[in-house]
Each structure stands twice: as structure tokens, then as C-alpha cells.
Amino acid sequence: MPHAGSFAFFTVAVCMLAAASSVSAQSPVQLKYTRVVDLTLPIESNMPGIPGLKSYAENPSSVTVIAAITEAQKELLRAEGMTLSNNLAVNGRSMISILSILVHNGTHIDAPRHMIDKGRPVDQVPLEQVAKEAVLIDLPNKGPNSTVSVKDILDTGVEFGPNLIPVIHTGWTEKTWGKPEFWEQMPYLEAGVGELMAKKNVSAVAMDVFPEKAIWRGVKLDPGEVWVANHLALLEKGIPMIQFVTNLSQIGKGRFVLIAAPLRIKGGDASPARVIALAE
Question: Please, which residues have CB within 8 angstroms of residue 64's CB and are 6 or more apart in sequence?
């Protein structure tokens, strides 16, 4: 939910990764913001993963409480639906939990290493790539089983490039997360969208739909089509993918800065992320 506060100034140095692995500085962007909008799905036990994929089925998310302060806290946690360890200890001192999650579940960031064998790991993704001014690409008519094409994006007339992170907004994650239709009727990006973003030299891309064809629900690939074409087009260029952001409708029509902070998982291919918007 957004939080109102005092007017503040946020300055972010805009940088992009050049093709020759050098960093070219851009002019700082100064924005006055009044709201912080949380764009992150909650992490909890048994988050829904891609149906039929073994890696999700065999590695369900779990937030397991192994210690509680008092019996009263233990019962409160139980009432809240928290996962309690069979060996939970009531220790009179502190609550302690263990998190287990496949790093591509929920709101997360894919680093180049996810698809590129010598790609940059998530702990080495420059934070200036995922913390800068952004722009919404609003596609409100994309409902169940729909697709997002290059033409759809270009027809919005929204400009984006090295200094603006494009955020593809259909409203799907916000409306359906936690419901069966989230995966069963998931809209997706058509092949070619990743290439468009890469040609625009964006520093990162954010989205609230799946970045590839929804093959788990029977969508067929064209002859010779590579399923992960959008991943490859972006990650080969060192462009992180910020996936399954939510609450985009709360940003409004003004300018905003997107901040997507991955955990610093050494050598990792991806990470859960806390993603926020600083909105005017």
C-alpha cells in the first residue's frame, strides 16, 4: 500500500552498462515525491509456482517459525496462518524463522546468469541499473489468456530508453495473485518484446505478466521458436528482468522512481526483491 509522507527530494545517478562493459554516466534525475508504493508480493509458505514445472513442485516456498517468545505468540502466529515447526521452541526471548524459496517465485529479479553461462550473477548487478526513473506502459485491456506484442507496446506511444525503466502494466498480478487463474490464464509477452527493449538500451525491464509463452497451459511454440527468447534477448545484453510486480495502479500518472533491491546472493542466478516506487 502507498504511504503518504512529507515532500522529499530523491536524486538518482542514472548509469547504464555499455556494450564494452564500461559504465557511462548520465545526468542525475531529481524528483519530488510524496508517496512510497510497495510493488512487492508477500513472501509466504506455499506460494504458487509455474504449474507442471518440477523445480517449483519439488521446492515449495516455506516461512517456518522455529522459535516463539511465548505460548500466546505461538497461538497468534498459528491464527495468522504461519507455518510452525513441529519442533518449535517457546524460549521466552525471541521469535526465529527459516525461509526457503525458489528464487524465481513471487516478485524477483533475474540476473544474466539465469540464462547466460558466463553472465553476471545477481550479487554483481549494478544497483544503478535497477534504481532509477521509470515509466508505466499501461495495457489495461490485456485480460485472461491475452498476449503483449511489440505493436501493443509501441502503440501506447510511451517513450523509454537508457534513462527510463519500462514497466509493463496490465494489472494481472495485482488482480489475480493467489487465485487459480493467475497461472491458468496468465497473459504473456510475445517473442520480440525482449529484443525491442534491448535495442532501446534499457537498464532493466519490469512487468506484471510472464515474459514468455504460457506453455504450461498448452500454448504452442511456432516452428523453430525458442521458448525463452525474451529472456535471452535481455540477459545477453546484461539487462535484469524485474518480474511479477504488483500495485502498479497505485502509482498514478506522475513521474516516479523504481527501486528494485535484490538480495546479495553470492553467485546467484536470481533473487527475491523488494520493489518500491517513489511517486510524485
Answer: 45, 83, 84, 85, 97, 98, 100
- Specify the amino acid at residue 99: L
Residues whose CB is less than 8 angstroms from the CB of residue 5 and which lie 6 or more positions away in sequence, other chains included: 34, 35, 36
Residues 139 and 275 grouped into a single domain = yes
Residue 77 phi, psi (nearest 5): -65, -40
pTM of the model as a whole? 0.89
* Residue 57 included in any domain: no
- Residue 99 to residue 125: CA distance in whole angstroms: 23
Q: Which three cell numbers stand for residue 210?
A: 510472464
Judge if 72 and 144 occupy the same domain. no
Q: How many domains does the chain have?
A: 2
1-17: buried (b, 16+ CB within 10 Å) or exposed (e) per residue? ebeeeeeeeeebebbbb
Range of the domain at 81: 62-100
Give per-residue pLDDT as tens, 158-212: 999 999 999 999 999 999 999 999 999 999 999 999 999 999 999 999 999 999 9
